[in-house]
Prior knowledge:
This protein has helices at 10-17, 31-34, 38-45, 141-144, 177-188, 212-224, 278-285, 335-350, 362-365, 367-371, 380-393, 414-441; strands at residues 23-30, 51-56, 62-67, 77-78, 84-88, 96-99, 107-108, 119-121, 129-131, 153-161, 200-205, 245-250, 257-264, 320-326, 355-360, 400-402. The protein is an alpha/beta fold.
Amino acid sequence: xxxxxxxxxxxxxxxxxxxxxxxxxxxxxxxxxxxxxxxxxxxxxxxxxxxxxxxxxxxxxxxxxxxxxxxxxxxxxxxxxxxxxxxxxxxxxxxxxxxxxxxxxxxxxxxxxxxxxxxxxxxxxxxxxxxxxxxxxxxxxxxxxxxxxxxxxxxxxxxxxxxxxxxxxxxxxxxxxxxxxxxxxxxxxxxxxxxxxxxxxxxxxxxxxxxxxxxxxxxxxxxxxxxxxxxxxxxxxxxxxxxxxxxxxxxxxxxxxxxxxxxxxxxxxxxxxxxxxxxxxxxxxxxxxxxxxxxxxxxxxxxxxxxxxxxxxxxxxxxxxxxxxxxxxxxxxxxxxxxxxxxxxxxxxxxxxxxxxxxxxxxxxxxxxxxxxxxxxxxxxxxxxxxxxxxxxxxxxxxxxxxxxxxxxxxxxxxxxxxxxxxxxxxxxxxxxxxxxxxxxxxxxxxxxxxxxxxxxxxxxxxxxxxxxx
Length: 470
Ligand SMILES: Nc1nc2c(ncn2[C@@H]2O[C@H](COP(=O)(O)OP(=O)(O)OP(=O)(O)O)[C@@H](O)[C@H]2O)c(=O)[nH]1
Ligand SMILES: [Mg+2]
């Protein structure tokens, strides 16, 4: 999913949001990228629920129209008591808001560009607006758009209500230093159930920019005790991560390594021939991809590729798969992306790999969570997004974990660490389920009872005991 970014400045976005009581904006359509045509507009904005049009002109006006009703090209005149036109300009310290003239409809739901009577956007499939004040809405043209009817940009956002806080959280978290310590200790003391396996291997997979590399950096920072940035992170159209990386994590500067390897990948994109491909993911599942393999969108790793590892053991295979999804983009996941994720899920199921879903950027998604991370399981919005993800990917809600990565902070934070460690603890629990399945699969005892750690959970592991994969 390549990133199409908003042209709104922080100040303009704040002004726009002030027109609603408690909302988030999701960019659906940007004419400079998708085309200044009615067809491009309808292709992205029809049947999206409440939306706001944001038109920009060279005179510095940001103006447009809100409706809570769907665009559906029905040909009908649509009434909407909540619809309004608005204008934001640097000269005004509050947005201008204009409701419809009493008894008049809000817009004509036709095939051409959005037609609010007084403002007709994408007029004749051009970057232009037609202005007819008095037709359904009344305003002074100089105040609305400064008489500049040529558009420099045209965007449409879905407006999502954020809801409030639940009285009771949907998961109980102890936000205490004792809990943080307890989680840290249990993660550090974890030992995979199979003796010959030294570390649980967890694979991070998800769309471009979802926060996969940041998750590794955050865990690494939390265990080292200071901010680290070993994995390169950032925002770009295509994946910032282009190499497969299997990261080990140290506890403290000179401490030992955690019994966990986090494997970072290139981001997924909608199209079949861009971003990380499903065949490469399957090779990673089976342990065939070497650390630092350079991904290529157009071809997958082959047995004779330099980064291909032929002989693999249980130490090399993936023991838990974590999907990483940006909470802000949940409702914008395209069918193509969902299909890709479903194909990955199918292959992981076939190989018996347990799966978990991380919902990142909860701070960006909900201002109540940004204000206080302890609201994460009380935010109606976050709960709704978790349910939505669980439904669309067919993953039980209990496998969905909201998380906040460190992104711009200079100091560690106890609550952020607790959420991060809870995710890690679940990953290790799920890796155990994978190991348990290996044990069940081997009940004929052909590998010998000494294979499993349950006999002596603290026994030191020898590299020479590695069981072979069949
Ligand atoms: N506010 C906030 N920003 C985040 C969070 N996680 C990641 N980011 C930011 O999102 C951007 C993308 O993060 P990355 O970790 O590079 O994402 P990625 O999934 O590795 O992306 P690719 O490697 O390009 O596929 C960066 O600017 C991060 O700082 C989060 O939980 N909260
Ligand atoms: Mg990355």
